[in-house]
Amino acid sequence: LRRNAGEPEFHQAVREVLESLGRVVAKHPAYASDALIERICEPERQIIFRIPWIDDAGQVQINRGFRVQFNSALGPYKGGIRFHPSVNIGIIKFLGFEQTFKNALTGLPIGGGKGGADFNPRGRSDREIMRFCQSFMTELFRHLGEHTDVPAGDIGVGGREIGYLFGQYKRLTNRYEAGVLTGKGLPYGGSRARKEATGFGAVYFVERMLAANSTSFEGRRVSVSGSGNVAIYTMEKILDFGGRVITCSDSNGYVVDENGIDLELVKEIKEVRRDRISEYARLKGTGVNYIDTGCIWDVPCDIAMPSATQNELTGKDARTLVKNGVVAVGEGANMPCTPEAVRIFQEAGVLFAPGKAANAGGVATSALEMQQNASRDSWTFEQTEHRLAEIMKNIHDTCAETARDYGVAGDYVQGANIAGFVRVAEAMRALGVI
Ligand code: NDP
């Protein structure tokens, strides 16, 4: 705790994993030797840097950039970059720690890392975003490489930003090293289905969890929070599976559309106009509520898929959802439910899919993008989505079987933590004390 003072999100993420490891160490004492657990909690490398850039008014602005290269036992560091004013080293460490186990669960050869900056893209012009991305990469490029560290997007970093980051990397290194970033656009080495992968994958995971309990999305009322990359493609796949999405949100408020959210309109507002979700209610008119006080989780639903940010669903929200009859919760975001909320869901018998497993489809498809780049190939949408669906099925089954093997059947949190840990721990033991 002393070494990581003032980093509550990192403590929260580490505590959750450590709470699952008692059973593992009891069965395999070797995992506790050579300070393996202490080593797994300590990032291999942490980079903090200055990002100077010039805004449209000609003023010099300064932000702080981060890259935490957490664990490379399984492959090059892999994990997204977040641009949000709340970013600090503790948030990036929590995300990098989670990423290490998530990436292990995919079964693919990728280590864990995460990065970002305390830059607020909201209200910034396209040119400001470009200059910021170029300055960010001007420092970061020396720490990256397709065999070293491969970032992707996260909150505030989508296809546009990845394009600017890749452009600057290419310019600085004089190398067309497509495999150094994922989430790229299709014209310059991107993978089909990468944009959709996190949301689609989360719904594939929840669908399989529901099927294992003899139910499905069909006819269900589903609440989704957020209206960014993960939320939009979560909504799309829920509709494919016959569910009815009734909410979505941004950090200012949420909309409730009892007729079912009009996904094409959300895409137009968020992806084309880059506008706020309040526009949805304004354009739809009657029958749609926009609420900028109160809480999205007060809306009764059968299934909740928090897809915005960490700790957005509290113990109080969990009690409300349980009272309103929620049957399943799937985390699209990273750690969106507080520990108290998770406990309340599990005690109430609500099916609970942790983000570490449920949202792994994005990074898994990023690894497929790396495969396509390495072989200078480009797969069809159907082929890529098929691989994604298979990977999510395997992650689900691995978590479920691991939970059963360790005497906690039905507990996907412990199943994911244990299965992810064991894969990383096995590799670290083989590599020696490094
Ligand atoms: P986006 O930036 O595309 O969207 C984020 C959404 O969440 C926006 O609607 C945003 O609203 C809302 N949001 C962000 N911060 C807050 C906040 N503090 N309070 C309320 N709402 C907030 O990000 P993504 O969709 O890519 O990421 C969403 C989550 O999914 C994150 O936890 C991310 O780590 C996780 N994730 C993303 C992956 C990916 O492939 N993109 C992969 C795996 C996990 P506003 O516009 O008002 O800020």
TrEMBL record:
Keyword hit for DNA damage: no
An MF annotation (GO) of this entry: glutamate dehydrogenase (NADP+) activity
SUPFAM superfamilies assigned to the protein according to its UniProt record, in alphabetical order: Aminoacid dehydrogenase-like, N-terminal domain, NAD(P)-binding Rossmann-fold domains
Record domain Glutamate/phenylalanine/leucine/valine/L-tryptophan dehydrogenase C-terminal: where: 191-432
Coiled coil: none
Gene3D superfamilies: Glutamate Dehydrogenase, chain A, domain 3 (1.10.285.10), Leucine Dehydrogenase, chain A, domain 1 (3.40.50.10860), NAD(P)-binding Rossmann-like Domain (3.40.50.720)
Record's keyword annotation contains Oxidoreductase: yes
Domain of life: Bacteria
Cross-referenced CDD domains: NAD_bind_2_Glu_DH
UniProt cross-references to SMART domains, sorted A to Z: ELFV_dehydrog
Swiss-Prot/TrEMBL keywords: Oxidoreductase
Family: Belongs to the Glu/Leu/Phe/Val dehydrogenases family.
PANTHER family assigned to the protein according to its UniProt record, in alphabetical order: NADP-SPECIFIC GLUTAMATE DEHYDROGENASE 1-RELATED
Subunit relationships: Homohexamer.
Protein name: Glutamate dehydrogenase
Originating organism: Neoaquamicrobium sediminum
